[in-house]
Amino acid sequence: MNRLLLSALVLFFSTALAAAQLLPPHKDNLFAYPGLLTVEDDGGYRVVDYDEMRDINGRDQTPERRVHSKYISTGVRREQHDLIAETSAGKVRHIAVGTSRRASVIVVYLHGQGGSRRQGADDFTFGGNFNRIKNLVHNARGLYLSPDFSDFGEKGAAEIKALLSIYMRASPAAEVVFACGSMGGALCWRFARDPDMAPRLGGLMLLGSLWDGDFTGSAAFRRSVPVFLGHGSRDSVFPIEKMEAFYRSVRKAQPGYPIRMVRFETGSHGTPIRMTDWRETINWMLAQ
User: Fold this and answer.
1) Under a CB-based contact definition with an 8 Å cutoff, are residues 175 and 200 in contact?
2) 45-287 falls under which CATH superfamily?
3) Of 47, 53, 147, 288, whose CB neighbour count within 10 A is largest?
4) Of the candidates 263, 250, 152, which has an alpha carbon nearest to the alpha carbon of residue 207?
5) CA 89, 94, 98: angle at the middle one, nearest 5?
6) Tens digit of pLDDT for each residue in 39-87?
7) Rounded distance, CA 188 to CA 216, Å?
8) Dihedral of the alpha carbons of 153, 232, 65, 138, in degrees to the nearest 10
């Protein structure tokens, strides 16, 4: 084979692999799913073995309050800032971790009812999973944001969009991945319908959240934006049967659509925030 052609092929595949694995490893063995009970749809639908005694009591020094130290790396706090942005929608308080210019990716966590920007930056709760995403994004030279917002409707969406407009201008090549916990999903689905936001979306993560029966008519659906659904089988807020029906409806509307669902067997409303494998999910999204 021609040496120049061989070199070009090596460069191409190396670049493709790097793009597919944008988030480098960080404590992968500790945060891997503990076991698969069921796998369907070529891995699109998985049932994960969740056990409260193992995954909360065994993982936390103080259950649901402070994780054991081996799960976290707090040096990332040096790259964390509690900020107030002056935007077209008013002042928006937010926590930012990582690089604010020429970021490789922008990951945004939107909290649920009763939450705040601090939830998505707490190193010790939810089994250290927020500490992991901060480290993953920082190590990839990306930007992680956890903002406050007024509500889960038009005003809140305007605040988040205005905040993101600042950071997206500073990182014009970065795709945006939204991770929406519980009611924060209402904002996820709003951005899916927003024709201005859809071209920048790298993925939507719904964590113990709600579904959108109109998603297949959205700008994000037309652009095949990847969707991840993480849900506890014992979620008392949003019944898992309805989320599973939503998953099936999207696959039926467009076979092969990039949508995945992980059912945490016996898990409750907050389980997906604790247990979702950020690295596996986001790297899959960005590889689509």
Assistant:
1) yes
2) Alpha/Beta hydrolase fold, catalytic domain (3.40.50.1820)
3) 147
4) 263
5) 125
6) 999 999 999 999 999 999 999 999 999 999 999 999 999 999 999 999 9
7) 14
8) -70
